[in-house]
Amino acid sequence: MHEPCQNSFVADRNSFGKPPASSTLLLINTFLPSFLRFLGFLCFSAAAAVVRKRSALMAFSSSISYAAAATLVEGCRDYSRDLDRFKVSCSSLNQRLSSTRIQTGIFGSPILSGEASSLQISAASSFQPIKAIATEIPPTVTKLSSGGKTKIGINGFGRIGRLVLRIATARDDIEVVALNDPFIDAKYMAYMFKYDSTHGVFKGSIKVVDESNLEINGKRIAITNKRDPAEIPWGDYGAEYVVESSGVFTTLEKASAHLKGGARKVVISAPSADAPMFVVGVNERTYKPSMNIVSNASCTTNCLAPLAKVVHEEFGIAEGLMTTVHATTATQKPVDGPSMKDWRGGRGAGQNIIPSSTGAAKAVGKVLPELNGKLTGMAFRVPTPNVSVVDLTCRLEKSASYDDVKAAIKFASEGPLIGILGYTDEDVVSNDFVGDSRSSIFDAKAGIGLSASFMKLVSWYDNEWGYSNRVLDLIEHMALVAATHN
């Protein structure tokens, strides 16, 4: 008697165990199991690849519904038992496909059968508020009456003042028309501007015309040496916006002295106790034309805020602690010296790792009110000349893997926050970011996740160059807002 085919799908319950009625049926019984096993193998391989790469699941789900995917997995379950070389079981895959996290991906609501589920649609709904519009000139906005360039003056020719000038010479939307520093004459300004130990020799041309004028790349810049900002005749030079980079006039009252000299607006290149603070890419949309004096916050806040915004809007930040490993700055001492307010800060900068306070994390609560009271932090000053790194250790409100968070940050860095937030998965160190114009560059390899809601995120920043770029971006955004209201 013919042995029944235990793997046959064509024998029904009534005829099971009986000989096949024809040679055709015999062929079917003989070859169909092998064919179905091969088909099951293909289904299993495709589904396993989907699980390994969640971004592929988004494209996969746009062509077949979740219900169809579950059916394929169920069908291949019985034919994958002999495929011992695959480590992921169909049962586990089916559970993953059934989970809310997989269905939602990283960008939005559950993907239901028949719904549009493209990455662009999901991303638009989740990340629309994050947009670095200060680096984009809307085509409907007309240029200002000053010949198409926003004319600015700089008060304080230190690290930030000099780099703001360098960057401005390479932009076609900004023109520096005047510089003021009470302690540096024109010749010394030219020398300090041309030679920079960190960022190299200035590649353009610079010459001293006289004690009151420099010429950079063929354009004349007026020089003054006033101690009182109210005495600087910004209006005479056509400077509409002033970069207050002396580090002295950081309050509304003190910075308002520039308005007496004819300036229309003042941007403080430091945190301020009472001036409105803005971080480009985070909250510059809240700027109003009536605000005459604003702060560009700190370099560390500019690094932390875009990162925190992306993570909070996608997963929610319940609480977090930030540590910045910060390069040496001019406020520190080369060797041990007196520092009455901060004894540790008086120790030699080149010899020590110095714990220090910072208000950068708390300041994020000012530019992102929903994070107010949820973040705080500290700093370690280290003996390197430039480039710092933020370590944000946070607990999330939603369950998410470290890979989920990386994917959200990468998406923002390539779209809504391009030019502001960066992403790298290479084996980088601090010197690799000297001269990087972005505010924050997320290091995917340096971070780590402990659980589904607790992880450490690491992001680099050139605390001089990146920050100076944002100063000019903020000014141009203010100018564009002013143009739309005129």
UniProtKB/TrEMBL annotation:
Entry-linked InterPro entries: GlycerAld/Erythrose_P_DH, GlycerAld_3-P_DH_AS, GlycerAld_3-P_DH_cat, GlycerAld_3-P_DH_NAD(P)-bd, Glyceraldehyde-3-P_DH_1, NAD(P)-bd_dom_sf
One Gene Ontology cellular component: cytosol
Keyword annotations: Glycolysis, NAD, Oxidoreductase
Domain Glyceraldehyde 3-phosphate dehydrogenase NAD(P) binding: 150-299
SMART domains: Gp_dh_N
Superkingdom classification of source: Eukaryota
One term of GO molecular function: glyceraldehyde-3-phosphate dehydrogenase (NAD+) (phosphorylating) activity
Cross-referenced NCBIfam families: GAPDH-I
Family recorded in the similarity comment: Belongs to the glyceraldehyde-3-phosphate dehydrogenase family.
Description of how the protein assembles with itself and partners: Homotetramer.
Protein's name according to its UniProt entry: Glyceraldehyde-3-phosphate dehydrogenase
